[in-house]
Every structure is written in structure tokens, then in C-alpha cells.
Amino acid sequence: MKKERYHELDFLRFLAAFSVLLFHYVFRVWNLEISSTIEYPLLSIFAKYGYLGVDAFFMISGFVILLSADGRSASQFVISRIVRLFPAYWFCVVVIFVFAKFWPLDTYSVTYFDFLINLTMLQSLFSAPHVSTIFWTIVIELQFYFFIFLVIQTKQLSRLNYILATWLIISMACDYFAAPMWFQKLVISNWSHYFIAGSLFYLIRKQGLSVFKVSMLLLCLWQALRHGYWYVLLKQRLSGIEYEPNIVSLFIIFTFLFFLLVAYRRVPGKYEKLAKLGVLTYPLYLIHGLIGETFMLDGISHINKYVLFIAVTILMVLFSYLIHVHIENRYALKLKKKLNYMNDNTKKWFTRVAAR
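The structure corresponding to this sequence follows.
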């Protein structure tokens, strides 16, 4: 059965990635990497909120991962995630690490062993540093994928509403009862409300609205607003720059309302052409961080700052397009065929063993 296509979410994913890029290039790299001086004071008024693109990413994942899991077996789901994530990720890990070693960067402390661990995407489990600091979100996404894998493997998709409710209650309890840090990370308590909300909006699309789902969404919104407020206070303390919590709250509320429109296919406008930008999202997010920030820092004394920003941004977008065309398109299908072949042979082997 052909799955529904949500062009508005493809376009939103690109906007989220681009907002994170703006946050890094226009605000963070100068404020946190150099000093409190901001090279782009006017643009930074808006760019300092670009980190909220990550919040949007997590809610998008909650929605689209359930869409991807629908009708698939656990092994098919795992294969689909590996094919989607790893080709571009492996390429970017290699490129970023080689770039950091040959530029070189004085503050770069990732070792060759850390590099090898990063190839597994499980570096956080081994307390190894990320090849690029922005990879922390990819690791969190992987945790959510593993959660969905367990639900599929144990054939509990029909009970997903109650599983999500349990997850949300546990996450909220972490805030109120000061749970150990390892447990908070295990249940992704700082971000679970976005994954859960995205999943609920998908379930609304499939099953319709209910009092239970509305109650859950209101709790997710409450959690998102609370954590958003705490996080903006942290941003203020780290940056020394004033933020407006009301802007963050309005963004969060708007995101929830937008997804409600997505669930009912009532988003105004046509996004088929704009959605084509969505293919750049993942490679752009992966590659833009360390390399682009280095170009910005090293080029600011030689090139007009606005020309530099535009040039580095265009370079990263073009690089992302090349990664999509020559890495994702070329190797994803090959990897999928090999994994499907291995999966089929494994099933046949277990069938033969069980028949003996």
C-alpha cells in the first residue's frame, strides 16, 4: 500500500535544518566560540532562536517514523532506518574528521578511536565525543527508533496510545522527583514530549481525535512549554544575550497547532515544489556544523561578513545536494538490497532450523 506523502513536513524539515544553520553561523559561532561579541547583531535578533529547529525535528520524527513503521515488520523497519540514516552519516563522519585533522583545529579532541566509535552512531553509550557536536540529536533520534522497533517487535502497535501515555508519565516524573541522570537519558525525558506529540498527531490522522489523545497532547504541550522556558533561561545564562520566553512559547504553540492541521490535511498552500528541498535536510544538518563554522571563523578577517555568510551557506547547501545525489541516491538502494538479502537468508536459516 502506497503511503501518504506529507509535502508540508518535507518543507518544514528543510526550514528546521536551515534555522539551525542560521543559529550556528550568525549567532552561536561568535557568541560561544569567540566572545560575547556578535558579528551579525541585527540578524542575530532572529537567528538566536534558530535552535528551536531541533524541537521541530523531534516532533516531525514522531509523526513520520510511525508513518514509516506502519505496515512494516520489525526487520523491515530496521532496514528502512539503516538505509535512511547511515550512508550520508558515514560519509559526513569521514569528511568532517579528515577535515578537522588536516585543517587543523586546535580545540578538536576527537581521537581515531572516537572516530571509529562514531561510525556506529552509538558514541554516547561509550561516553565518546561526537565527531561533530550537532550529532547529539542524531543519537537521540536513534533512541526513539529503537523504542519503535521494540513496540513493533513485541507486536504492541495496537496499544501504542497507552505505551506513549506511560512514557509521558515517566518523563514527567523525572522532572518532579529528580530521577538519576542515566534514567532521564534512557527515557529521553528532556525531549520525549515532542516525539510523543508527533506520534499522537499521526495516530489522530489514522484513528481520529479522542478525549484521551487531546489530554495527552495537552500534557505534551505543557511539558514542551516548561522545558522550553528552562532551556531559554539556560541559553541566556550561557550566551549573556537576552531572550524573550514568550517568543519561544508562541513557537511551541504554533508547532502543535501546525501539526494538528497536518493530521487533518488542512495546511493551507501547496508544497509539492518546495518539498523537494526536503532531500537536502539530512545531509545539510550533518555537514554544516564544524566545517561551515570553521570557514566562518577563518574567513571573517578576509571577506565581507555578509558575503562570507552567503558564500558559506551556498557552499554547504551545494555540498548537501552532492551528498544526496552521489551518496544517498547511489548507495542507499545498494545497501537496502544487501540488507534485504541478508534478512531473507536469515529468515530461511531460522525456518530450516525450526523445522528440524
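The two ends are 35 Å apart (CA to CA).
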